[in-house]
Amino acid sequence: MKIIKWGIIGCGNVTEVKSGPAFQKAPNSALVAVMRRDAALAEDYAKRHNVPKWYSNAEDLINDPEVDAVYIATPPSSHKEYTILCAKAGKPVYVEKPMALTFEECNEMISVCKEHNVPLFVAYYRRSLPRFLKIKELIDGGKIGTIRHVNCVLYHPFETRYDDEINLPWTVLPHISGGGIFVDLACHTLDFLDFVLGPIKSVRGHATSQLKAYPAEDSVSMSFLFENGIHGSGLWNFTSFERYDNAEIVGDKGKISFSTFGNDPIHIQYANGEKESITIENPLHIQQPFIETVIAELLGEGVSPSKGTSGSRTTWVIDEVLKEFREASK
Q1: DSSP letter string over 302-318?
Q2: Over residues 53-59, mean pLDDT
């Protein structure tokens, strides 16, 4: 059986536990090279994770003949650049979420990969997690009847690390991340809804900066309509007094409630008043189930559920709701 040999561009925090070790533990997979612009940090990562090669230049990794496929784990501002370089080198691409800074960039990535006959996968790994597959199974099996509407709420307190205007995290710098914490976190929920309920066709909403602590938005409210007629609403706020994470999918025979993050139980409430809870914990290397689907597709043994086309749809939704805020911030 062929082994897919991976290279990672951007071996930062997300690759320490969530994704990096999965390339070593998944069947028919090996992690053979990593890259980070800081050579010392690249070398340190390679030594700690027993990776044979390390680089400080992305093109050197991409052009390494031993690297079959590339995982791009950098901030979104460089996703397009590295995806295009990989595509032109004939290397399959697995890119972190959100897929790119804008829907336009996503389309460029899709086009170049198609031109070079290179598959493009996006790290919306909840599409392969058992906990979320159970939710999809319940919905597809008609447990709560015909779906009518969804509602998503996520709020966090303001964190002191955003007090330092000189050293703000890149996740709240729109030229690097595409937006704020909303972009970083809400994309997971929006993509899962796309997976379970189908594409969103219309978006209306508001984005503001209530605290004005950083350049990005800190509060977003939106309503959306799916192609199949299901209605949706959502609120994301990062200036609140506590943490709260809940999404509800409501049908004509019941509803399913769940959190996007963490291992909270899935709650089901039926029209007759009965209630049910299901607990399914996420794996330690949370991206591994999805990475295994990518490897299976590359080996011609399966199909991965998150590609450039679906990943770009979530970026389109984000673009639509942030459109006015971005214009006003110019």
Answers
A1: ---S-BHHHHHHHHHHH
A2: 98
Question: Is the pLDDT reported for residue 155 higher than 80?
Answer: yes
With CA atoms as reference, report the closest residue to 284 among 21, 7, 31.
21
Q: Give the model's confidence band at 330: pLDDT under 50 very low, under 70 low, under 90 confident, else very high.
A: confident
3-state SS of 254-306 is EEEEECCCCCCCEEEEECCCCEEEECCCCCCCCCHHHHHHHHHHHCCCCCCCC
Q: Which residues of 52-72 are buried (b: 16+ CB within 10 A; e: fewer)?
A: ebbbeebeebbebeebbbbbb
Distance (Å, rounded) from C-alpha 207 to C-alpha 278?
A: 34
Mean pLDDT of the 75-93 span? 98
> Element (H or E) spanning 323, and its range?
helix 308-329
Share of the chain above pLDDT 90, in %: 99
Domain 130-282, CATH number (from 2.40.100.20, 2.60.40.10, 3.30.360.10, 3.40.50.2000) = 3.30.360.10
Assign domain 4-123 one CATH number from 3.40.50.720, 3.30.1120.10, 3.40.50.150, 3.90.25.10. 3.40.50.720
**CA distances (Å), 283 to each of 57, 65, 98, 194, 273, in order?**
32, 32, 21, 23, 32
Give, for 181, the enclosing helix (H) or strand (E).
helix 181-197
Side by side, the strands of the sheet bearing 29-35 are: 53-55, 29-35, 4-9, 69-72, 93-95, 120-122
| Whether the Cβ atoms of residue 192 and residue 126 lie closer than 8 Å to each other | yes
Q: What is the pLDDT of residue 1?
A: 63
**Spacing of C-alpha 13 from chain mean position:** 15
The residues pairing with 152 across neighbouring beta strands, listed in sequence order, are: 234, 247
